[in-house]
Specification:
The protein is mainly α. The two termini are about 30 Å apart. Helix content is about 75%, strand content about 0%. The protein has a single domain, classed as Four Helix Bundle (Hemerythrin (Met), subunit A) (Up-down Bundle). Helix 1 runs antiparallel to helix 2. The protein is elongated. It has five helices and no strands.
């Protein structure tokens, strides 16, 4: 089965998660708790779908990586971006589950404290996920 469409779909899911995270933050700043809740739960759902499809893609390719073919400073910058993305991405599911648990249980002070750290991390991971896709697929230079 050809699953070559999955990287593009995953980038789209990351972009949707980014939009939902931004919208969710705006909703809570406007005092719309219910709108915030819906958007943040949707962001979690979209991010969960991304993770499942990302793992499916990796499994289907026997965990083979796509190489970024640039050299010099561009390769170094890409590797720093990738390392920060992967490292922080490992924290997002745990942080998101804790945020949801605090929010749904009415522990709003804990939810807010954690969100000050977790929201920027989740945003960074979502945005850099799209950027990494662009670098690895449409913008990836041909191998030398």
């Amino acid at each position: 089965m050809d699953l070559s469409f999955l990287p593009t779909l995953n980038a789209a899911l990351n972009a949707v998660a980014t939009a939902l995270l931004l919208s969710g933050r705006l909703r809570i700043r406007l005092g719309d708790v219910e709108g915030h809740k819906r958007r943040m739960l949707a962001a979690f759902g979209v991010s969960t779908a991304f993770l499942a499809l990302y793992l499916l893609h990796k499994i289907s390719r026997n965990f083979e990586n796509t190489t970024f073919h640039a050299e010099g400073w561009a390769k170094a910058a890409y590797l720093v971006l990738l390392a920060s993305h992967v490292t922080l991405a490992m924290a997002v599911p745990v942080l998101a589950v804790l945020l949801i648990a605090h929010g749904l249980r009415g522990r709003i002070d804990r939810h807010r404290r954690l969100a000050r750290v977790a929201w920027p991390i989740w945003m960074y991971v979502s945005v850099t996920g799209v950027l990494i896709y662009l670098l690895l697929y449409p913008l990836n230079p041909a191998p030398a």
